[in-house]
Amino acid sequence: MKKNLQKLIACGLVTAMFAGVLTGCGSSNKNNTAETNKQDNSATATATPGEKDGDTGSAKPFEGVKLKYATTQTASTGEENQKLIQLVKDETGIDIEFFVIPNSDSGEVDKTLVSLMNGDEIDIIYNTKPGLKTFYNAGVLTDLSELAKTESYDMASKFGDYLPVFDDAVYGLPAFSDIWITLYNKKIFDDAGVAYPSAKDWTWEKYVETAKSLTNTDKGIYGSLMLDYDCYNYMYALQKGWNPYKADNTANFDDPLFKESLNFYYGLGNNDKIQPSILDFKASGTAWNAFFTTGQYGMFVCGGWTTSVLNNFEKYPRDWKVGLLPLPYPEGQEASTLTVPGCYAIPTTSKNKEAAFAAVKCMAENQYKLGFGRVPARVDLSNDEVNEYIENSLAKPFAFDELTVDDFKTAWFDPTRKALSEKIIGPGSSVISQVVIEEGQLYGQGGEDVDAAIKNIQNKANAAIESDK
User: Fold this and answer.
1) What is the pLDDT of residues 381-427, one digit of tens each?
2) Polar residues bias located where (predicted)?
3) Right CATH number for 179-337+422-467 from 3.40.50.720, 3.40.50.20, 2.60.40.1120, 3.40.190.10?
4) Calpha distance 81→24 (Å, rounded)
5) Higher pLDDT, 31 or 388
6) Rounded Cα–Cα distance for residues 307 and 408 (Å)
C-alpha cells in the first residue's frame, strides 16, 4: 500500500542516499567524510518540466525544453553535475536547472520526497536503487515502461539487473554502480611468502584459507578486514540464494541460510581469528579506512568506492602496493557480488515526462564518460569499449599499484557475475537494516546466542513490515 506523507514522517523513514566516488557500503551508522562525499549528486536530484514547442524536425526534438533536477546546493555546484547537465544539453538540447533541496538530517524523511508529496513539479531525481523503493512506496515515481515502449527502447538489454524494478515495472535508469571487491596488501603477502591470489574461482573458502596464511597476531597482522555494516551479516546468505522476504512478504530471517551467514561472518573473528572480533572492532573504534592507514590487514572486503582513496597519498600515505580481486563467493555457487546502482528517475509531478525520459537516458548511458571513475551500469558495452574505458579512465590513476585492465575487468566488468543488492529492498527495510546490525552484533559479541538473535530479528522485521503497510 502506498504511504501517505504523515505516516512516512511518523515512521521516520530515511532514504538511503548514495555517497562515495564509487558508491557506498550499506550501513546506517557510518559518519565519515569519504562516504558522505562518495557522490556529490547523491542528494536527490530534481528537475521541473519545461515547455515543449513540438517536434521541430531537428535531431533534438526537445531543444530548449527546461527541466528541473533536484539536488543539494553542494551537489549543484559540483564539477560532475555541472558536466552532466552540459552533456545533456549538448546531446539533447534540453536545459536542466537545479531544484535545490536542503539536506535531510538523520531520522528525517528525505526532503525531496516531502517536496514531491507536496506536489512540487520536479522532472528528475537521483537516488540509489534501494533508495528509490521508498519513493516508489510513496507513489511519486513514474513507471518508465510505456515511455520506453513508445521509443522501442530496450531497458533490460541496456542495463540488465541494475534496473530498479519494483512489482515488475521499471522506475529509473541506472548510470553507474558500486560493485563489491577484495583489496589486498601485496607487502603482507610478500612478507608471509604467500602467492597473490587469482580471481579465478575466488571463493570464500579460498579467502579464509589465504587469510589464515597471512595472519600473524604477534606482529598485529590480520589476514582479513570487514566492517560492521548490515550487509556483512547477510551477504553469504544472499550469495546462496536467500531472500529477505518470503513469498507472502513476511520476513525470512528464520531461514537456515541466514543463520549460516551470521555464523560465517562473526566466525571469521571469533573462531577463525583472521580478523578482529566484532567486540574488538567496536571497542577499538576501528574505522572504515583502517586497511589504508594501518597497513596491518592482508585483505579488505568492501564496496568498490574504497578505491577512491588509493591514489590519495597525501591523506593516506603508504609505500606498499594494493591488489584487486572480485568479491569471493561460496564454493559450489555461481560467482556473484553485491552492488548499489545509482539511478535517475522521473517523478509523477513532471509535466514533460517525454523530455525527462530523453534526459534520463542520456545521463544513464553517458555519465561514466565524464572522467570521474564511474563503473557504468550498462551491460551492453562491447569488450573493446570496456577495455578502452578501463585503460583510459580507471587504470591510469592507479599506476603506482600497477593495477591492470584485466584486474579491473575481473573485479568490476565480469558479465557472468550475478549482481545482488547490497541493501534490503522492501517493506520495513530501513528498520530491518538497523535491527540486523543491532541483534547480529549482540550475538557476535556474546550477548545472546544465534537462535535468540534470529528470533528477535524475525519478530522485529515482521513488526516493521506490518507497520510499513
Assistant:
1) 999 999 999 988 888 888 899 999 999 999 988 878 998 999 998 88
2) 33-47
3) 3.40.190.10
4) 18
5) 388
6) 11
C-alpha cell at 364: 544513464
Q: Please, what is the average pLDDT of the chain? A: 87
* Superfamily in which the 5-178+340-406 domain is placed by CATH: Periplasmic binding protein-like II (3.40.190.10)
Nearest to 234 by CA among 414, 429, 42: 429
Backbone angles phi, psi at 195, to 5 degrees: -65, 145
Contact criterion met (CB below 8 Å) for 303 and 180: yes
- Closest-CA residue to 316 (of 183, 191, 207): 183
By the 8 A CB rule, do 56 and 39 touch? no
Question: Is pLDDT of 23 > 90?
Answer: no
| Short-list 20, 41, 28, 156, CA closest to 424 | 28
The answer to whether residues 211 and 298 touch, using CB atoms and an 8 Å cutoff, is: yes
Q: Which position has the grid cell 573473528?
A: 269
Q: List the grid coordinates of 81.
A: 553535475
